[in-house]
Amino acid sequence: MLEQLVTLSPDVAIVADAAGRICQVSPHVRGLLGYAPDALIGQPVEVLVPEALRARHAAHRDAAEARDRGPMSQRPDLRARAADGRLVPVDIALRPLTYEGRPYVLAVLRDIRHLRRLQRQLERHAQALEAANEQLEDFAHVVAHDLKAPLRAMRFHAALVDEALGEQTSVDALASLGRIQLLSTRMAALIDGVLQYARVGLGPADDRSWVDPRDLITEIIESLVVPADFRLEVAAGLPAVYAPRTALRQVFANLIGNAIDHRGGPGGRLTIRATVAEDAVRFDFTDDGPGVPPDDRARIFNLFETGEGRAAATGGGGIGLAIVRQIVERHGGRVDVRPNATRGTTFWFTWPREEPP
Predict the structure, then answer these.
(1) Which residues is 269 bridged to in the sheet?
(2) What is the pTM of this model?
(3) Residues 188, 334: one domain?
(4) Residue 98 sits in the same domain as residue 151
């Protein structure tokens, strides 16, 4: 029975008696440690233990033998001594056995060298990714600064020309100067948006905490220019979400700002609701604006896509909704848009429900 047990094992299986002598070894030991199975029969199990640990291992084995023979645990991240003296990383599972009234111990050794190699590769990739993220963030700052510098100069010189010409300037010239200032302002906002889009995910990997959406909404409204006749309604009972606060705030801010920008005239109303499911929370942002044409719904979450007439009407650059989708999908949620039954649009997203570790 013991011989069949070790022979059929897909890993290296070793059976030792109560005295710690090896009595059965699977053939796989040759491939892992370089021993001929017959050469290990009768040897103390300490022959497979690193020399510096043999005395301690023997004492530990004797002490364990003196105690009641209960279940034995798995021993991860150990090393076995190979025939040529190499120390091979292994995972060892120990199990007490009784055969024909005699006690034995079954040890199953699994080769984890490939896991070690993968771990080292992951560590190198993580270090390279961290360095690349730092370089990308530095590059984005440099690009944003260098691109915005001429825009600031354009606005400055346009203002000087406007001041120098004074009232003698023709209506067309004044309109052109105003257009220069407007376009340079929009370009600066576009650069800021691209920088924000590029930096999604470059912040702290795990700054999650319990976030109250109502607190986020209050902060956002205080930071935006909200028309006096615009109504924001927040349904009662919005649930707290365990999430990165900065990321969730970006999502809420872009969706609220989108509703204000595209309200389609004076007034306007936005209602924010939430629905709690077993594995996610769904947030609905329902407005009474002009809506999104059917042909535009599939693409307005793409970078620089704004929908027909939306950018011209509001000065938007098609970045806010792209940021929303990038953040939501990065954290395992979904985002979409649907028309309301009467007027307006509902943008919605789901956020996975998580618990603190």
Answers:
(1) 231
(2) 0.52
(3) no
(4) no
Question: Does residue 6 sit in the same domain as residue 55?
Answer: yes
Strands (E) in the chain, as ranges, are: 12-17, 22-25, 74-81, 87-99, 102-111, 208-211, 231-234, 241-244, 269-276, 280-287, 335-339, 345-352
Report how far apart, in Å, the C-alpha atoms of 166 and of each of 59, 158, 159, 161 are.
Answer: 98, 12, 11, 8
The residue among 199, 215, 237 that closes a domain is 199
Cα pseudo-dihedral 66, 67, 69, 72, rounded to 10: -110
Q: Given the DSSP bridges, would you call strands 280-287 and 269-276 parallel, antiparallel or unpaired?
A: antiparallel
What gap in Å lies between CA 288 and CA 301, rounded to an integer?
A: 20
265-313, pLDDT tens digit by residue? 788 899 999 999 989 999 999 998 888 888 788 788 887 666 554 444 4
Q: How many domains does the chain have?
A: 3
Domain stop point among 139, 174, 199: 199
Task: Please give the structure tokens belonging to residue 158.
Answer: 């346009």
Residue 109: other Cβ atoms inside 10 A? 24
